[in-house]
Structure formats: C-alpha cells, structure tokens
Amino acid sequence: TGGRYAFNKQPNVAYWNLYALGQALLPLIGEQAHAVAALESYKTVFPIEFERLMSAKLGLIAGATHGAHARVVIENILKLLAQDKVDFTIFWRRLSRHMAGDAQSPVHDLFLDRDAFGTWLLSYKELKKQSAYRHSADLMLKTNPKYVLRNHLGEEAIRKAKLKDFSGVQDLLTVLESPFAEHSEFEPFASFPPDWAAGIEISCSS
After folding, report:
1. Would you place residue 66 in the very low, low, confident or very high pLDDT band (cuts 50, 70, 90)?
2. 133: three-class secondary structure by DSSP
3. Taking 60 as the threshold, does the pLDDT of residue 65 lie above it?
4. What is the pTM of this model?
5. Is residue 40 within 8 Å of 87, Cβ to Cβ?
6. Quick count: other Cβ atoms within 10 Å of Cβ 203?
7. Helix, strand, coil proportions of the chain in percent (round to 5)?
8. C-alpha closest to that of 177 among 136, 146, 204, 140
9. Contacts by 67-71 with C-beta closer than 8 Å and gap 24+?
C-alpha cells in the first residue's frame, strides 16, 4: 500500500537490498571497506544498464552518438506514463507495433494528455531518424513482450487448479514460454486487468 516497490523506487530498493546482503556477508568478507567498494559500483553500473535496457525498448542502441537525446526521451516518456497511469506492458507493445507499421491510434489513445504524448512521439521519431538503425522495429518487438504474468491471470489459474482444472496453468505456460509471439488465440491475456484485480495483494512469498 505504501508503494515501496513502485517502478521508480526500484533502483533505491535494489541498492538497499544489496546493502543488507553486504551486511549479512560481512563476517565472510572481513574488511568492511571491500564491501562498501563493491556496493558503490552499483551507482555507476545501474544507470548505464538502465539506459541500455530502456534504449532497447525504444529500438535504439545505447551509448550511440544520440545518447543525451535518448536519455531525455526515456525520462520524458516514463514521466508521462506515470502521470497518465498508462499500462506499462500494453504501452510498450503497442508502441512497438506502431513502429513496425501499425496505426498510431492504439498507442495514442492510451493517454489522457494526448497532446503531450504527440509531442513526445515526434521527438522520439526524430531520434529514431538520427539513429538510422534499420532493425529497430524488430528489436522492439523482441524486447517488449505482449504477455506478462499479471496478478489476475495467476489468480485465475490458481482458482481453477484448486478445482483440479489445470488448463489455466497450461495456457499461461504456453504464452509465457514465448511472450513476444502474438498467440492470437490467447488475446485476452494481453488485455487490461479487470477492475477486481486492483484488490489483489501480493506478499514477498507469493
């Protein structure tokens, strides 16, 4: 309920987890300075890796000459997604489909502030022109999955399994073994979560 593991808080939570791990291992490490030095490397490694992964979601090659422009584009879309509470997985997949040639409206319609998204999209497409990476759309479709294990899908599969019906588990396995494929017969699995899913609470042991 406090949003401790919200997307934008995950970097700091990961750092805290590593700090706790370092404390637990200190008797084996011996020198506290060694543990601190290892932990400090996170502050350098994380932003580099984060930019690489986010660039791939945008069909870009991280570290290219457009690096500064790419960082602004990444930062702006993350702010807009949070502001309009846009479904993360659906957005990235629809953007990928649009960049592969599909219509713009499915991704454009996800936003409340459509003017802001339109402005961002123009900036993003300008960046894409600069990068001139011809396999960009393929990279996006191989990076942004259509299917993820959403809480309500797991819940529905569990409910069926308790009644000795394991078809829900098998269907989830099918799509999650190849989450980037279209699997048109399982299209509902890629839809927005139902309203009742907002009440699902997940523990660390889940």
Report:
1. low
2. coil
3. no
4. 0.88
5. no
6. 5
7. 70, 0, 30
8. 146
9. 69/127, 69/130, 70/127
